[in-house]
Amino acid sequence: MGHQVTIKDIARHLNISVATVSRAMRDMPEIKPETREAVLKLAKEWDYQPNILATSLVKSRTKTIGVIVPDLAYHFFASVIKGIEEEAIARGYSLLLTQTRELYERELTNVQNLSRGQVEGFIISLSQETTDFEHLKRLQRKGIPVVFFDRDAGEIDVTKVMVDNVNAAFEATNHLIDNGCKRIAFLAGPASVTVSNQRQTGYLQALNHAGLEVDKSLIVHGNYNLQKIIELTNYLFELQNPPDGLVVVSDRLAVGAIKALKAKNIRIPEDVAIVSFNDEPVCTIVSPSLTSVAQPTTEIGKMATSLLISQIENSTIQYNPEVIILKTELKVRESSMKIK
């Protein structure tokens, strides 16, 4: 047949009702054996494939998870998705994957489209623009489970899989202090991104702990745009008293900062030592190689998926949201090894 074979085609050909074909397929006892045999034989001959979506809609089970991330080009997100997919496949689920490109409007559209596409739950990392959470509260009201990872929204009470960003930044800043840095700047992300704010907290705690003065002019906020990072780095190093240490909120931004410093002939690590976050592959490729905080990305993905699926499959049970905090590891390379 030219089109995909349906139950109606089989019923018409055998001159029986659609209901009888359906019952024969499901091996119902009231169907005569010869009728069942005729149905199954024809279904095999015509290569009949049951419409999985239609069947699953009847049971309202699509076994599909919606995943929304800011940008698939970020190594961090690509790596977390690897963990999400591994766990989902192992549990018999598939993924519908979208990106927001850091835009709130796109996040809104993605949530609406995926909801219509019958996903049973969401794994989300928020866009840098998201400050209104009504679209996520709507999912909660409909009883659709949501798990956050990496980026958090305090006012949404859902399960979250995070890393200990405060402690990670404390350790990274402390590492610069141990290597002789006295004036340490913090190159932050947008003020709306919780991860950046948590890392800033850890940076401030390390300065206070070491008895170093906090200079507000050394804390600058950028977005994930290369030109902006170059401008901010130039600003920091044109100060009358420039920094001798730099904590950068992510490797992508750190690469931009290194580019700006090289253009100014500022030596790394001799003039300024640098640490950043995410431990992307670029850290070992840039020169000097970049000290960075590694996160257990695959584990984040697997854990978020496992927690989401247990909510989906135990929907009748009252579910208390959990916050899982995973540990990080500082990978020390050339960019931070100042001679004390």
Automatic annotation (TrEMBL):
GO terms for molecular function: DNA-binding transcription factor activity; transcription cis-regulatory region binding. Residues 5-59 form the HTH lacI-type domain. SMART domains: HTH_LACI. Keywords: DNA-binding, Transcription, Transcription regulation. It comes from Arcicella aurantiaca. InterPro entries: HTH_LacI, Lambda_DNA-bd_dom_sf, Peripla_BP/Lac1_sug-bd_dom, Peripla_BP_I. This is LacI family transcriptional regulator. It holds the Pfam family Peripla_BP_1.
